[in-house]
């Protein structure tokens, strides 16, 4: 990576792209920015705001056949981590915001998530199935330090002895190690830690407000030392940015206790294509066109790939090279271990103990 990499705003996206669902759009014009400069005014304060929303449900059935999870839940929409490649950016448009800077600065908070989760688990027809936190946006993003919604949801999972998986790139998950250890002792939890690079330079430009690589590796080790099964997501693999790190990264996370690895090849669907293209020309101008062309080569010549079964893994020679390296990494470092199946047998018995208690009125929320 270049020594002069710089993200002037401390964000991933550098623009707010137009929301395709809205008729009107807002843009920051150069003449307005110049006026603010001359007047000594701040055109954009670049602050994060938290907006409470009130969903009626929190557990979502995942119908996409190639995602690898059946159910997910997201205590927050939008994510302050600011990962430039994040597929979840597009979902912010459904809420009336931009997938660009709005995604990182307007965080929607679902304070009633624990109550909604408990209601779902107590529903008559629900059978234990692993629910993934957070299949869309990180449940341990900075907002969790303020609102503690993820911790309250984990308390619900523990109370009903229901299996849960977590995906995060934030070391803040260790705050909840007490609950996670209890879930682990009953085979009820698996953790996926996202680590895309061993380089802090790369991490800073790709994922500006995430935990450092050092802290993430320490998180993997701490969880592993406490017998928590940990999978490391090397996702996404981006040609000419982190594709050369597959083997050293796999070796390093294995040494820190990970028992498996997963990966995806980057894809730039919807608004992400415009956001990423703008970002890379501003942040990595010397290699921008090379990276964009190689990404397109992995997806039939386009940045926007929605084909099930191909969109996450890519195709063509570059993708084949990535697949070959992943195969070598798994054979060399993970051939003798695998992630365990979570325990679904305890839930029905535990639910019987609470079936006569009205949801939302347990001492958990008092």
From TrEMBL:
<feature type="domain" description="Elp3/MiaA/NifB-like radical SAM core">
    <location>
        <begin position="69"/>
        <end position="297"/>
    </location>
</feature>
<dbReference type="InterPro" id="IPR058240">
    <property type="entry name" value="rSAM_sf"/>
</dbReference>
<protein>
    <submittedName>
        <fullName>PA0069 family radical SAM protein</fullName>
    </submittedName>
</protein>
<keyword id="KW-0408">Iron</keyword>
<dbReference type="Pfam" id="PF04055">
    <property type="entry name" value="Radical_SAM"/>
</dbReference>
<dbReference type="InterPro" id="IPR006638">
    <property type="entry name" value="Elp3/MiaA/NifB-like_rSAM"/>
</dbReference>
<dbReference type="InterPro" id="IPR040086">
    <property type="entry name" value="MJ0683-like"/>
</dbReference>
<keyword id="KW-0411">Iron-sulfur</keyword>
<keyword id="KW-0479">Metal-binding</keyword>
<dbReference type="InterPro" id="IPR007197">
    <property type="entry name" value="rSAM"/>
</dbReference>
